[in-house]
Amino acid sequence: MNLRESWLLFALGSAGFAALTALFGKLGVAGINANLATFIRTVVILLVTAGIVSLRGEWARPTGLSAGSWLFLVLSGIATGLSWLCYFRALQLGPVSKVAPIDKLSVVIVIVLGLLFLGEQPSTPVLIGGALIALGAMIIAVF
Question: Is the pTM of the predicted complex or chain greater than 0.90?
Answer without folding.
Answer: no
